[in-house]
Structures are given as C-alpha cells and as structure tokens.
Amino acid sequence: MPEYKEPLFRPPAEADSLIFQVAYGCPHNTCRFCGMYKGVRYSLRGMEEALAEFIKSAEYYPEARRIFLADGDVMLLPFAMLKTYLVALNSLFPRLTRVNVYANGSSILDKSDEELAELKKLRLNTLYLGLETGSPKILELVNKGEKVNVMIEAVKRAQQHGLRCSVMFLLGLGGKEYSAEHVRLTAAALNEMQPILLSALRFVEVPNTRMFDGFKTVSEYEAVKELRDIIAGLELRKTIFRANHRSNPIPLEGRFPNNKQDLLDLLDAQLASGELDKNGPGMTPLFL
Length: 288
Ligand code: SF4
Hints:
Elements: E1 18-21, E2 23-24, E3 43-44, H1 47-60, E4 66-70, H2 79-92, E5 98-103, H3 105-109, H4 113-121, E6 124-132, H5 136-141, H6 148-160, E7 164-171, H7 179-193, E8 197-202, H8 220-233, E9 239-243, E10 252-256, H9 260-272
Parallel strand pairs: 1-4, 4-5, 5-6, 6-7, 7-8, 8-9
Antiparallel strand pairs: 2-3, 9-10
The protein binds iron/sulfur cluster (SF4).
C-alpha cells in the first residue's frame, strides 16, 4: 500500500489511479492564487524508498492500469530519474496503460525531443499544466513564474510527441480590472496551444492565498461571463473541455469544435436566468 505525506493532491480525473509520491510539495510554490503546498518544503523522495514502494504495491494492485505520480511538477524531475521510475512501473504493472503527472511549461521544455519521445514510449501519458491565463501581465501579478510563450511552446512540443496535455485556466484570476484582458489573451493562447484536454476552474480565495494589491474578486455573473466569452473566442480543432470542478458555478462538459455552440447556449441561458449573483461571488465551496 502506498504511504502518503499529507497534503496529497491529484486532478479529479485521477480519482481511480494508483498514486505514488515521488516528490513532496511544489518546486515553485510562489503562485499567489494557490494554497496547495504552502508550508510544505519541496523535496525529492529517495529513489530507493519510492522503488521499494512500487514493488510492494505491485503485490496488492497487480492489475493497476493508471498511475499518477505526485506531487507538484513531477515533470521537473531529471530525465534519468523519470526514466528509472517509468521503467520500473512498466515491468511491475503488466497492465499499465498510462502514467500521468503535473507539469509546467519550463519543465517540459527542459526535456529534449528524444527524451520526450522516450518518456512517451514508457507510457508517460497526460501532463496536467496550469496555463491559468494567457495574459503575461496577470501571470506576473500572481507570481506564476512561467511565461505564456513558454507554455504554448511546451504544449505544442509535448503533443507532437504523442503526450496529451490537459491545460487548466482560472476564471476570475485577473479580478475585475483585468477581466477583459484575461478573456482575450486566454482564448488566444489556447488557440495556439490546441490542447487535447482543457478545463476551466474558478479562482476562489482560500487560506494561504494572497492576491495582488488592488485585486477585486469578480462576481459569480462575471465569472460565468468570462467563461462564455473565452469559449466564444476558442477555435479548437479537437479538444475535450470540462468545467465540472466544484469551484465552477455551472458544471459543463463538451467537445470542440462540435459542442461549442451548445456550450454557449447553456451559458447564455444561465446569464439570462437572473439566478447568478451580480454583486458577489455567489455560492462558493468552503474549500477547494
Ligand atoms: S499553481 Fe502549481 S506551480 Fe503554482 S504553487 Fe501551485 S502547485 Fe506550484
């Protein structure tokens, strides 16, 4: 049985995956909007300890098909280390189909074309990447430490090698002041990326987040309007889209390009319904 050091996070789509922690915390940990690993000092797990856990877990879960390697930005691990882990997982879990990780633009671009191709062959599959916004200005204000053009390039290169990028953006991240810029530049960045998987989450202030000076939270209505306007600007050729995280006022799911108009119709109906809070954030989850 894998043993975990709390806090442990995984994307919603990894609910049924076998999870191993090969590192603890986030190597960046500077993003103002993210409280996930604040207070956790980043460290790599000892390789021997991790490999021993793989062997032990293979006795309990020999049929495991999907594995998620935690914690934050596991793509930053040195190539040799990632390869060692993937080789071991492939030999220990005969039915393994995919190994998924969190990634950042720069950690993907750190790997050469040959390395990306080799990782793909070893069943590295989905890279979860937080674009958050296509606005360089907002990225700087929230201390993301990544550049929009680096993330665009990273997604394109990873997908050229058959890896799937699952890209996330955050509604309301620019607050009221930068809402229009957030909408315009996020749609533009996503159109360049053409991610295979895309999800929208809403930024909600939680403990351990401290936004930039002058940040004013968008209302529930404005958050839905941002989503509607970003979707209207998307020209995606083959993308599965989800906005079903509990931070979103309206759960949505669809495929681009076929369901784009359906998504817009649903959002327009919601905006016209009078049910959305125009003065405050509306019903927000107690924790994310
Ligand atoms: S958003 Fe990602 S990169 Fe930024 S602090 Fe959180 S886990 Fe780390």
